[in-house]
Amino acid sequence: MPLVGVVMGSNSDTEAMQPAMDVLKELGIDYEVSVISAHRTPEKAREYGQAARSRGIEVIIAAAGGAAHLPGVLASWTTLPVIGVPLASSALEGIDALYSIVQMPAGIPVACVAVGTAGARNAVYLAAEILGLKYDKILESYEKYRSSLQGDSK
Which pTM does this prediction carry? Predict the structure, then answer.
C-alpha cells in the first residue's frame, strides 16, 4: 500500500519529478503517482485530498510550476502533511511557484523545498524523516543514505 502520494499538476512535470520517484524507490518507500491540475480539475484535487488518508497515504508530495496552487489546494482538503515542490516552468524560473507555495495562510501549512529536481529529492527525504517516526525500515534506509553523505561534497 502506498504511503506517499506524488501529485503533479501536469504530465509535463514528470521529468522534473523523476528524481523524487527514483529516491522513493531507493529508500523502499511505496508510492503512487497522480496528475491533477488545481485549475483544470479542481474537483479531482478535492477528491484526492479527501480520500488520501483512507487509501493509506501518509504524506503528499505535490509539485507544480507557475502559479503552483496544487500543494495548497491539496492541503486545504486534508490534514496529512503536504510537501510542495516548486517547479521552474515559466520565465520566472520557479520563483513564482516558490512564492505560491510558501505563502500559505495560517492553519493550512505546506512544507516547501527548493525549486526543481533538488527540491524533488529533498521532498522525499523530508517525507522519509516524517515516515521514519513510525516505520523503522524507512528510518533505517534514510539513516543509511545520510551516512553515505559523509565526505560527499555534492
Answer: 0.94
